[in-house]
């Protein structure tokens, strides 16, 4: 089976490439604008000739290449359109022309945008595939448009497409200055496993399962995030007193956090629900908040081996003095 990974020099692209290359007889094309040990072709997803060459004989496409939220303040809106929309269109057209079996598109929970921002006193957002997206910036808008292109090519051309709306899995520091000043980075990430983070190993496995099941699904959109311990009835209190809810659902967290000098966020405003992905993709994520607690209790790092191997890549060649990247809402 021949596989094309776009964004093969990035976090997820490299992680996918590592797993696929470990399989006997793997045939991998890695496409990225930046060279890396996992990139076989240096080029753009918006370059039709380049994409056509890469797509020859391909059975499965993992389209992870994108401009991300960290690029919003440093790149033009047109650049987002060119990469995230035009690039996806170029790939879809080439996939149809080459009778690709399955196309997996890496989207983002950022498409939900302002739908995940309840006011103080309102319940936290219980975010499922039925939640109506309300993108708040050019990143979310272009990823949503790319999702719709995937849906169009399924409806009009019969291309089997699965869209995965991934939550945070990057190792870089949080872009929220207040959080960075008040919480240790490991503390922030541990808290996020309750509602908005996944380990890259689980994200990779969701992509591989999606490719395997794409033909049977035809088309689908799924949230990919760690399994939350919260329930819908927790949402009102969660957005006002998160600690009390965590104590109720995961009572062992208190002892672990006290031993580490960590603290819970005062409020949590959304919860990503992965139930549909687990059911339809046959996906069983390993890393969740309880896994983090157990690892910390054992004195181990609560991340996968592949997360360690891929490491931190950053999103810019430039180093910024005030945070991991400029923030522009």
In total, how many beta strands? 9
The biggest beta sheet is recorded as: 7 strands, parallel
- CATH uppermost class: Alpha Beta
Strand arrangement in the largest pleated sheet: 3-2-1-4-5-7-8
Structural class: alpha/beta
N-to-C order of helices and strands: EHEEHEHEEHEHHHEHHHEHHH
Gross morphology = globular
Oligomeric form of this entry?
A: single chain
Give the number of helices: 13
Rg calculated over all Cα atoms: 20 Å
CATH superfamily: NAD(P)-binding Rossmann-like Domain
Strand content: 5-15%
Poorly predicted residue ranges: none
Which labels suit this protein?
seven-stranded parallel sheet; 329 residues; Lipid_A_modif_metabolic_enz; 9 strands; 13 helices
Structure description:
This protein is of the alpha/beta class and 329 residues long. The model has no long low-confidence stretch (mean pLDDT 93). The protein has helices spanning 11-21, 48-55, 77-97, 138-157, 177-182, 185-192, 200-217, 235-238, 242-249, 253-260, 275-281, 289-297, 305-310; strands at 2-6, 27-32, 41-42, 60-63, 102-108, 125-127, 161-166, 219-224, 270-272. A seven-stranded parallel β-sheet has the order 3-2-1-4-5-7-8, with helices on both faces. A two-stranded parallel sheet has the order 6-9. It has one domain: Rossmann fold. It comes from Exilibacterium tricleocarpae. This is NAD(P)-dependent oxidoreductase.
Write the layout of secondary structure elements.
Layout: E1 2-6, H1 11-21, E2 27-32, E3 41-42, H2 48-55, E4 60-63, H3 77-97, E5 102-108, E6 125-127, H4 138-157, E7 161-166, H5 177-182, H6 185-192, H7 200-217, E8 219-224, H8 235-238, H9 242-249, H10 253-260, E9 270-272, H11 275-281, H12 289-297, H13 305-310
Pfam families: Epimerase
Domain NAD-dependent epimerase/dehydratase: 3-182
Organism: Exilibacterium tricleocarpae
